[in-house]
Amino acid sequence: NAGVTQTPKFQVLKTGQSMTLQCAQDMNHNSMYWYRQDPGMGLRLIYYSASEGTTDKGEVPNGYNVSRLNKREFSLRLESAAPSQTSVYFCASIRDRGLYEQYFGPGTRLTVT
Amino acid sequence: TQLLEQSPQFLSIQEGENLTVYCNSSSVFSSLQWYRQEPGEGPVLLVTVVTGGEVKKLKRLTFQFGDARKDSSLHITAAQPGDTGLYLCAGADDYKLSFGAGTTVTVRA
Predict the structure, then answer these.
(1) Pick from B42, B48, B96: which is nearest to A48 by CB?
(2) Does residue A8 register a pLDDT over 90?
(3) Smallest Cβ distance to B42: which of A56, A99, A104?
(4) What pLDDT is attached to residue A80?
């Protein structure tokens, strides 16, 4: 099993450009998450999907949209990138709803110039 | 504002020494988790604690959950260079995890 995979690994965008970050998991998990990680601030939740067909905002949703395409895939879209969105983005899925133990992907390092 | 405060922010020790990392909150969580993250990779789950006062051991790592389920500590005995990394605590509350800012641990050979 590959676990949680993310593409691309690295991306550079100009201000105003758009892009979609892809995430897929092969563990048959129901819930999936998108986080951003900035130095000194830990991981902050952008959006999550508790189950296929549902999505909810997290702590920092402004400037982002998500799509839960099916049970396996959860994508994150930046419609008009801004320098403040320069960050490392992680996708995760939950193994156990009771304990919320998360499996993370390897991350996408995004730079917006 | 972080729901979970971790201390210290940075820790550098010599191989063989012991260390303790703290995770404190004013909120009660249904469970608390510790993750370790290495550069260029995603966090990896180390342990989950659920019951107030619970102590879990994972080889040289000892995790403790406070009686009130608001704080936790991670103690590493006889640290090795392989323990180097960013240690993150996270509290679970209804589908969402709140993460601390992390403690960067460096173990020098």
Answers:
(1) B96
(2) yes
(3) A104
(4) 97
